[in-house]
Amino acid sequence: LGTLNVDGTFDVVTKDLEISTGMDVGGKVTITATGNVVVTPDVTFSDLEIKANELTYKNLTVNEIADITVKNDFTANDVTINNLKNLSANNITIDNLNVTENASIKATGKIAANTIDVSGNLSKLETNNAKIGSLTVVKDANIKATGKITADTIEVSGNLKNLETKDADIKNLTVDKNANIISNGDVVLGKTTIGEKFNASAKNLTFKDVTSVTGETSLKATEKLTFVPNDVTFNNNLTIEKDTGMVEVNHLTVNGNADINSNGKTTINTADINGNLKTDTNELKVKNKLTVTGGDTYLGSKTLITLNDAELDNLKMNAHDAIIDNMVVHDYVDINANGDVSIKTANVEGLFTSKTANLEITDKLTADKDVNMSASNSIKINDADIEKDLNTSAKTITIDEMNLKGKFNSKVDTLSVNTSNDLNIATIFGNSKAYTNKMYINSDNAILNILDNSKDINIYAKNIKMISNTNTATEDKPLNLKLAKNNNITLLSNGDIEIFTTGAVGNYRKIVTDYLDIKTDSYGVNVYSAIVNIYGDIRTANKHIIIDNTTWAPNLYVTLQLRSIISPHFLFVNRSPFIRTQSLNALRHGMNIYVNKTKDATSMNSWLVSSAEAQLKTSNTAKKFFDKTDSKLNVWSTLDSYISNNFSDEGSNMVIKTIKGEIMTPDNMDEFVNSNHNDIARPKRRLFRRNKTAETIQVSYLK
Questions:
Q1: Please, are residues 57 and 75 in contact by the beta-carbon 8 Å criterion?
Q2: Across the strands, what pairs with 59?
């Protein structure tokens, strides 16, 4: 055809059709060609319906409706159609397609277009492969490709109801409302802006550029989900679905709740979550920093969780293993792990709870409330600053430094604690068995009993070593120990040691202290080495032994009085009246007691001989002076005969009083000196602290 002017309709059925000059048809044009249709010049139609084998246009304008079906290829430069009812072909190649209203496009082969603008709905863009420079849809769009869609820009002002494809590579995607992407292959998205909800699923899903989603987002990548850029923001809830494989995030911001699921490894460089965070992954690693504010944090992993840095409102963690370099948590921490947990630095403002196989604090744990640690194997703490209580349970516990303001409770087999501060012990007992096998505590200050009831047991143990720079317990609150059989005890202190024991007989391998107070409900006590600088008090069920380095005066109310002439002491006491110790240290003992199978130190004899000899020999109150070589001062049977033979009746008087102010006379002397008052409590310790020269017996010579 050359030039064709038709006022009405034009209907042609042919094999091939070529329009070479021009065509002006006022009505509907229907072209049915079994061959090819070629339109060379610019043409304008009102309505157009074409069926052809191939169709080639230069420039095509359809003012109303276009229905174009091409068996093979459709090629055009510029196409402007008011309503593209149908454009279907094997392959479609268009430089520019402009649809004023709605459009439906289908290519069984491929679509290649520089620009596609649809001012209405794109009800269908269906193809095998599509390569589009720019696709703009004012209303809603449906896109489907069995192969791959490549686009520089896709802009949908309405809803992207479906973008269903095998693969997609879109450099710029903007959807004002909802967007739904479905792929069983690889989807790569550049700059992405979604105004409302966003759903995307693919085999591999990659965000390569700045991403912003206003509505709720659900993402799934069965192999790998990747956020490449430094700015990926979801301004509502984000869900990464359970079937997702690996997840890699450079910088993720979620202004809502984040639910991250992965059956592979999830790696996050930086994430800021302003809501709740929940993860359920095979492995989770935060390489830079994780920040969660205004919500709860639950981190779950089937294998390993690694946190380089985290600041959270609270934390609940479930994993096999966990490595935490630094975390600040403004409320509670609850960690559950079947394997090992290593924390370098943790600052917890709430309750800290952990249940692991092994737990290690390699640098420092700071907690404002209680700390509860349970491990099936071991707990190791390099340093801890805890405002409340520390409750621990493990086979082995090692604490290198600790400032514990509250109570220390431990269920442990082997315990080692070093601290520069006071340690307040509540209860320590065994993990595998009833008794702790080995317990070592070293404090630069005091080791104290913190229990409300001063009679409750603090320590159930077999082998004990306690070192304190000041005191081990106090007089009103001793440490209460229940001892296992075949125990070994070492007590070292620069101040007081106050111990009460029950259970088996205590075997004290080494004691070093200023003041010692050991009480036991057992009949025995075994002291292998004891250095007591000032005063010691040891009470068994039926004996009372003192080590008194403050005076030579006898104590009338004890079973055995010792002085540290030879140090260290050894002392072995049992139910029998036989006591083993250094004979030279024994100043006196009760009449029914044997020291090293003898009674040499019975009553006041040894005290008078060893202490008073020199003074009495030079006394100017005596009627006669003694021969200075005479050492037999105990030849008088009673004190009365001694006084009558050595002191002037008219020249002097001797008044001897007990600590209770009782005057001793020749008539009652035997009662005082030879009695064994185990049931009378010794004087309060403060007597010796305030006046180390105080004596239990005061002697005055009155001229």
A1: yes
A2: 78
